[in-house]
Structures are given as C-alpha cells and as structure tokens.
Specification:
Strands 4, 14, 15, 16, 17, 18, 19, 20 and 21 form a nine-stranded mixed beta sheet that branches. The protein has an eight-stranded parallel barrel with strand order 5-6-7-8-9-11-12-13, surrounded by seven helices. A three-stranded antiparallel beta sheet has the order 1-2-3. The relative contact order is 0.17. α5 packs across α6. The chain is of the alpha/beta class. The protein has twelve helices and 21 strands. It has two domains: 170 residues, Lyase, Ornithine Decarboxylase, Chain A, domain 1, CATH 2.40.37; 233 residues, Alanine racemase (TIM Barrel).
Length: 466
C-alpha cells in the first residue's frame, strides 16, 4: 500500500496496523489470542468495562524496573571515572503517593516543583532527606514547609530567594542545603518551549552572576552550598548537550572550589523517549557512559576532582510505562485538497482530548495509537485522533495509520502517556479528570481516583443556591 500524501514524511505505512512497535509501548504490553491489548496481563476491554474511559493505565513493574535501570546505568558509568551519582525522580512528570513509594523502593530521590508535589511526597512517607525542591517562584509557605520537613536540597533560582530561604532557616535554627540553578547557555535539540537553559528565560541565573551569588550564599550561616544545578530542557536523545552543559558548569565549579566546598554538580534531566516509530533515543547506558567520559575529561583538563553528580530523570522513568485508553465516539472521512487529486483523512473522535493529554496541542507532540479491543485485517488508513473539546486544536494523535475499519465503540490505546499526561490534565469544558490505574501480574487497582461530575460541582458554591 502506498503512503497517503497527507501523511508526514516520517510516518511509514505499517505492514500490520495491529502491531505494537517495540520501545514505544510498556514492556508488558501485548495482544492476546483474541487480539485484545493486554498490559501486565490485564485486558484493555476489562479495564475499560471496570473503570471507564478515558483511563491512564500504568505498568507498575515497568516503572520500577526503569527507575532501577537508570540509577544502575549512571552509577556504573560514573563509578568507572571515580565518583558517585544521586538520581532524583522528577515528580513533575507524574506524582502520586503510590508512585512515590515505588521510587523510594528503588532508592532514588524525588524532585518536586511545587508545594503540592512536596505535600504528596511527604504524604507518601518519602524520606525528606532525599527530596529536592525546585521552582522559579517558590512561595514563603513552600519554603517554610521544605525547611520544616528537612528536605535534602532546595534549588535556589534567584538572588531574592537567597535571603528568603536564609531567613526561614535561621528562624528555625537549622542549616539548609542548597544548590544554585545556572543557565549554561547550551541549547539542546528540543522544542522551543521545552528548552530551559538559554539565557532569555525565567529559570536560573547566569554564569557571570554565579560567583557573587555563591559568595552571598556562603555568607549566610543558615545555608550550606552543595553545588551548581542546570537543566537543558526535555526530550533530549543523546549525550552531547548534557556533556557540553556539564563542561561549562565544571569550569565554574573549579572557580568556586578554589574558595570553598562544592561537593556536587546537578545536571538535571530531560532524557528522551520514543513516542513514534521515527524516534530513536540512544540507550540510557550509552548516554551515561558518554557523559561520564566527557565530564571526567573536562575535570582532568581543569585540574579538579570530578564532584558527585546528580541527575533528575522523570519522563524516561514513567513515560513509556503508561497507556491511555479511549473509546471512539464518531468517525468521519475528510476530503483534503492536495496536489494532483483530493485525498482523504479519517477523523476518529474519542471521549478525551486536551484535558487528559495537552502535549499535542501545546507542543505539537507526536504520538502513536492502536485499536485496543480487537485485531483487524482491514487495510491501514490515515487517521487523526481528535478529542471531544470545543477547540479545533484538540488533537490527541495528529497522524497515524490505523485499520481502515476503525468505528464508533472501538477502544483506542495511546502509548507513552505517563509523563505530563495526568500531570497536565485539566477540567476544560468541565470534564472530570480520568483515573490512574496500576496493573501488575494480571491485576489492577486505582492509584489516583477519577473525578466525577459531583466532584466538580462540589467546588462551586453556587450549586443549589436559589
């Protein structure tokens, strides 16, 4: 079958529109003898019947394994060059108390970016000493809660925050460990809105300002300077950007180490995953090895010991673990004028959309999809999976080949939705946010309860007021 001229160049016509592309789906996803998608031994049809759709389905053992694997990869790579690694799970990708306990079991820390994320981690019983606190505009209440809990590190994002945090810690008679976030100027290959280490943006301070601000931190008895922090962006497939950013910070690190203790260097996160067959991220072991070699060489050139390294993966750990299930409500062929002759794209509208996955609308992110409740022998057809919201840009999957007989009532599965799906979900159009269900060993359980219309109305004080 030839490609539809409306399809992007990267999208290939699949030999089998039922096949689950390896590396995109969670590790325990497969089709059973009836052609139904199963995740960790639980059928998509069973999940939809029990919990409804839309539904986030998390492959628990996939999350646990990936957390252990990235820690092992970086631990081994940097041990080879003579230093250690701290791994913080970036809670902004997705956080609930159950997942926080999985991360704790794997021995990782957790990085939180709001007062709410901090509250969730603490409610899970997560050890405060392994919590890092981020944010470009942390409230006084958030800083107070962090110091009171005894978090292991607060990442200072601005000069104003130094005095605020020092005052809070001094009032409590404690010494709060801190890092200083630096804009390294490295532009990793990523979406403009995802790049966070260029100079003209809201996060961090410049390399030029860093020595003065570190001196200010060191002058506060209630603060302990741990080291520098940077974050290049998100969805980065190789080691080059991380290594170059690390080299720039190591030069600053060497300057600061001449006048005081600088035990750590935090390189942030942003390790990318595959969302479509066109995505080809390097194996995490290769990225870790390249980063270790590059930073060790840079430290040797500068004549300084390589400090302890910290990283903050989120998407890499949780992204591939989760599949979102939808139910198709309507389908329609749309004739589109194109050079030569009109072509047809099928729109399949589902019962979710930008309220449960904002990334397609916000970043023009690409996703994959498959029919989940059956196998089909129909020829592949170009399909756009649309949401149910009152926005023309409410698209879940812009371009995918699905069996041409996709029809109302079909279950549709979109993989790799664990990062920034539920975390960025909203009640747009007064739509309740879906439940999150964990699956393992043929069993399922709710780890985040789905909202109901009653939940939404309960927040409106005008309900039942005459």
């Amino acid at each position: 079958m030839s490609a539809n001229p409306l399809a992007p160049a990267w999208l290939r016509v699949p030999a089998d529109a039922n096949a689950l592309t390896p590396g995109i789906w969670s590790r325990h996803a497969s089709r059973n003898a009836d052609g139904v998608l199963e995740i960790a031994g639980v059928g998509a049809d069973e999940l939809a019947e029990r919990y409804g759709t839309p539904l986030y389905v998390v492959d628990e053992f996939d999350v646990r394994a990936r957390a252990r694997e990235i820690a092992a990869a970086f631990g081994a790579a940097f041990a080879r060059v003579g230093t250690s690694v701290k791994v913080y799970y970036a809670g902004k990708a997705f956080l609930c108390t159950e997942l926080a306990r999985w991360i704790d079991d794997a021995g990782l820390g957790v990085d939180v970016a709001s007062h709410g994320e901090l509250a969730v981690a603490l409610a899970a019983g997560f050890p405060a000493g392994r919590i890092g606190v981020h944010g470009n505009n942390k409230s006084l209440a958030q800083l107070e809660a962090a110091v009171d809990a005894g978090v292991g590190a607060v990442v200072i994002d601005s000069e104003i925050e130094i005095e605020r945090l020092a005052t809070i810690a001094a009032a409590r008679g404690t010494r709060q460990p801190v890092r200083l976030r630096i804009n390294s100027g490295v532009h990793a290959s990523t979406h403009e809105y995802l790049a966070t280490s260029h100079e003209d943006q809201k996060f961090g301070v410049t390399i030029a300002d860093a020595p003065r601000l570190v001196a200010t931190i060191r002058a506060r008895p209630s603060l302990r300077f741990l080291g520098l922090h940077t974050h290049l962006g998100s969805q980065i497939f190789g080691a080059e950007g991380f290594t170059e950013g690390g080299r720039r910070l190591l030069a600053l690190h060497a300057e600061l180490a001449a006048t005081g203790e600088v035990p750590e260097l935090n390189l942030g996160g942003g390790f990318g995953i595959a969302y479509t067959s066109a995505d080809d991220p390097e194996p995490i072991e290769a990225i870790a090895a390249a980063m270790a070699d590059g930073l060790a060489a840079a430290a040797a050139e500068l004549g300084v010991p390589l400090p302890a390294i910290a990283i903050e993966p989120g998407r890499w750990i949780v992204g591939p673990s989760t599949t979102t299930l939808y139910t198709v409500g309507t389908t329609k062929p749309v004739v589109v004028d194109s050079p030569g002759a009109p072509d047809v794209r099928t729109y399949a509208s589902v019962d979710g959309g930008m309220s449960d996955n904002l990334r397609t609308a916000l970043y023009r992110a690409d996703y994959s999809a498959r029919i989940a409740g059956r196998r089909s022998d129909a020829a592949p057809a170009l399909v756009r999976v649309a949401g149910m919201h009152c926005e023309s840009g409410d698209i879940v999957v812009r371009d995918e080949y699905l069996p041409g007989d996709v029809h109302p009532g079909d279950l549709l599965a979109v993989p790799a939705t664990g990062a920034y799906g539920w975390a960025m979900a909203s009640n747009y159009n007064w739509v309740p946010r879906p439940a999150v269900v964990a699956v393992r060993d043929g069993e399922s359980r709710v780890i985040v309860r789905g909202e109901t219309l009653e939940d939404l109305l309960a927040r409106d004080p005008g309900v039942n007021v005459q």
